[in-house]
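Re: your question from the hallway

Yes, I did run it. Sequences:
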Amino acid sequence: MSTLFDEIKPYMDKGMAAKAALTLLEWDQETSAPPMGAEWTAKIIGELSNVYLESMVNDDVKKKLEKLHSEKEFSQLSSIEQAIVKEWKNVIKQLEPIPQNEYQAYTELVAKAGNIWAKAKEKNDFSVFSPCLQEIVDYKRKFATYRKKAGKDRKIELYDILLEDYEPGFTTKKLDEFFEQIKKELVPFIQKIVKKSSKKNYCLPKAKYDIEKQREFCKWLAGYVGFDFSKGVLGESEHPFSTNLHNHDVRISNHFYEDNLESAIFSIIHETGHALYEFGIDNEITMTLVGFGTSMGMHESQSRFYENIIGRSEKFWKPIYSKLQETFPEQLENVSIKDFIHAINRVEPGMIRTEADELTYSLHVLVRYETEKMLLSKKIEVKDLPKVWNEKYQEYLGISPDSDKNGVLQDVHWACGDFGYFPSYALGTAISAQIYNNMLEIMPIEEYLESGNLLPIRDYLKEHIYQYGKRKNTNELLKEMTGEEFNASYYIQYLKEKYTRLYDSNEK
Amino acid sequence: MSTLFDEIKPYMDKGMAAKAALTLLEWDQETSAPPMGAEWTAKIIGELSNVYLESMVNDDVKKKLEKLHSEKEFSQLSSIEQAIVKEWKNVIKQLEPIPQNEYQAYTELVAKAGNIWAKAKEKNDFSVFSPCLQEIVDYKRKFATYRKKAGKDRKIELYDILLEDYEPGFTTKKLDEFFEQIKKELVPFIQKIVKKSSKKNYCLPKAKYDIEKQREFCKWLAGYVGFDFSKGVLGESEHPFSTNLHNHDVRISNHFYEDNLESAIFSIIHETGHALYEFGIDNEITMTLVGFGTSMGMHESQSRFYENIIGRSEKFWKPIYSKLQETFPEQLENVSIKDFIHAINRVEPGMIRTEADELTYSLHVLVRYETEKMLLSKKIEVKDLPKVWNEKYQEYLGISPDSDKNGVLQDVHWACGDFGYFPSYALGTAISAQIYNNMLEIMPIEEYLESGNLLPIRDYLKEHIYQYGKRKNTNELLKEMTGEEFNASYYIQYLKEKYTRLYDSNEK
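Structure:
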């Protein structure tokens, strides 16, 4: 054990406690806090963010981290300590250039923004949210500029700096290439499939699906997929999401619609995928800086692996579809499992990202990616967003949102200050296909699904991804697991195969 | 505005934010957190308690508070600032003598103790909890001893020091007098009533009361009594309780039993009484040291005022009993409002404090008061508790608990480290009668109840008690409101009148 490391550890312990409290406050705001409390609670959030900042970034820590990072000291650290030191230096790089009072004001702003966004969405009025969003964007630009000035790379784009927070190692340049590939290979393919599918799209029966029954089924389904209720909690919120205080307290929320059965089912599988990741973090790194999923993209790869690759496959539903039918006998008795699978895989360009099918999903992300880049580089301002948004939807998805509520106001992310986050959704989706390709070679994954035994799948992912937390980054994990770094071609190939198969074999 | 005060205010802001986060963590532990998370979450609680401690008690604060308290500076402060300075000095007096590492270890211990207590209660096995409880008691004794040494009064009893935290101004001496009065005046009266009542006790029909319907009715009832859902949240927990992050985020929990309708109904009225107090705190003092109810006793006076004095009166139920009947038509159709009032006021010495009738309630507190005093003064140890407990129940209530679960393990309080807290329950009950006596002179309170208009009652209490928070102490508030300091005779008189009336007029 390093004495020097022991000296800075209490700073981390305090910082991580503040972060966990912030996580709980955020969870609580989304799932239960009273609406009129947000304004006051924002102050609590501001203060605790400050506690986090003061504890993680201060002269004593910086001095000692520099020493620990020197060759002589570093080699004496355990591999976990090494990972913590590296991560801590990253955190400092992100936070240090930002003046403390501005950081606190910013966190108080976003603590309030969620409510303002919700109000704007409810009223279907972007102008209710836009002044607040402009403030957030101004902070984002300012913070990125501070960080750019503090960094060595003068040519780096502001948007790259935001990406670093969510997807270390993935730059605008790499993402441009990735999205170019999607545009070039997927957009024409999608157009072909959409033409084919529009004639024979099969939907679940339009019916009322009792919410209490949905709630029960989804709870059961979470457990089936692997959610551990002794270490986790299910909640409800406007927008499903997942979070965690630590690996023994993982939380996912869902949202139920009486007229939409699919939404809650695939949300719960999605969020359970996130949860499995955090449950699987090794106890040795719990509540340390590296005791969380390595990146947003890798996290999203897990949620979307479970939601789409597994969760929308016939093999997955084979052992459990009858249970769903029993839950909704009137609605589903005449829906065969083939019909069901076809329905949950139908392709239909729509306005809402979270309701999008697997095939068109990345195009929703593409819209946001391009919009965010323009916003950061001041090519557009917040007031221009609805127009730009709608134009891009028209260009890539061939439809134009009928309202701001179903357009630019649909996601909560910008209200949380999460710019540079959306690309991770597409990236994660692509990563999940690369991982799946690897697993197909390693294990009889379809047999497991068919026999209702999901454990070996989870265990394999835990062994190769989850346990490490942030000790390894996305490309390191992928390289060790699949033999190569991120490669989007598995994703293109997966989609082409799946949808060619579905729209050839499933003629109705 | 005082510059010096402005210099210490940021310490308070940080401290109060940490305290609010701790409140949320506690609420969350009781209402939703996953069981396996508690061990890890205890670390978060320990760290945040430390943030609170460091922020509220440090050399800079102490130096500046002393200056602010000096005659010249003090007179320049606003009355709110003066109250904060006084309260802050109290907080320091309580916390300063305790070494920081011991305080943190203690908070981590009690953060875990709740789960251990729950397990012991579930298993009906005191030995599961006793080692943990002994640790808590050891800390309590040690901390009180530190504080005794730091104080000026060498003759003060250790138990007095604990009382200070909950009931400033009420010493063991005063409480001894209070409980002596109860023993002398109430015990014989109760024995007389019990003899009378045992022949003709009327209970609600033994039936199943659907929990979802109870939940709905209780939510409605909370609103009827005055709960503001835009600033408050209802939850569920093993043991009903109330808490608050600030006056715009007030939370109460309830517990439902299918075979017991009264439990949830009177719990929700009780907790709503607590909530009204916190809702009523003036915004000028929100999230300051004085922005909370002035004492546990005063708080309890409000919950028990609503639960018993109002909530068990016929006038209260007159406009709403039909709604309860409509909710449970099969169970209650043959129960007249007279029967109902008789049932909810029946006297029956029982084992469980929270289920106790209004008349025998203080005797449950008496048992705890005497037991705690013995524990603090080392006359007994934790291992002796079940025996002492059962003997005292036999002595005062004439019954002996059939199990630890229904005996010494029934309350969560000791697991939270709350020693010296129980007396406030009896004290608050007595205060509520004094307040009621005053209100009868001031306003047509029974008319208000009968017409379903509870607002003037709440407004009067807000004006004379709630708004001030800790700016005035219990006796100051009572003096200004009722013309005299605490006087237990109103309580004795109220009970004697009510139960004489009930058990004479309601012969069955």
